[in-house]
Amino acid sequence: MTTPPENADPRRQVARTEVLLADPRLTDAAQRLGRGVVKAAVVTAQCRARAGEIPPTAVADAATCR
User: In which domain of life is the source organism classified (predicted)?
Assistant: First the structure.
């Protein structure tokens, strides 16, 4: 993976939904709670990262806390 240029849009650093849903913590949660519930938590966390509320690297962590 390459480092983005200094002027790159930080929102582009947010992982794609499918990549995040493959995180073992989230696959476990999807089995317990249902994929729709977990996907909604991921999308919410992605929006928070794109808004600058959380770092892009914290999206999966934020989704597991919902």
Answer: Bacteria
